Input
Amino acid sequence: MKIELNHVTKTISRRLVIDDISLTLEGGKIWGIKGINGSGKTMLMRVISGLIKPDSGSVIIDGKVLWKDISFPESIGILIEAPAFLDGLTGLQNLQTLASIKNKISDDQIKQAILDVGLNPNLSKKYKAYSLGMKQRLGIAAALMEKPEIILLDEPTNALDVDGVELIKKLTRRERDRGALVVVSCHDEAIITELSDEIIYLSEGKVVKTMDRSEDDEKTVV
Output
């Protein structure tokens, strides 16, 4: 799996939110995105996922051009900003509804995904009664349940306790080790540094530096 961004630029309300970004991301790695609020982290994930079309440049997923050859990446799991589900359904019912779109996985696999994030798939509580931490865990389960080739996790540790954070680290590494291309943003520098194989530093919509954690090889982008 490979994602190539070539001179991608996006302006929203006259503000340059993605500024001429060129990157190549490969599977089997966790790619960390670091930057202050407003630096472009979430917007970059939206572009990669096909949710927002850039004004210029191209995004190529395994040789297929987004918005030309394909509308969205063919195998992707996404948690961008706060998860949102149907209030009147249980966690299991919500994921069953979501999984019915592609019909790729069984009920047993859905239940296992819920167990993997530390929730009870048989819980009768409706989603509207979930705590923030439970909602976050369910959102992560939704992103991972179909074992997609691309996984985008925007601030996945939000609202999680220490045990939850450790669980997310474990799951993220598991997905990387099976060959997925994982992109993670996190405001906690210690977490993103520990978790990432490579870190992309953003500032005002531009890539200003990249770092290969396996070699501590830092590259500044001019």
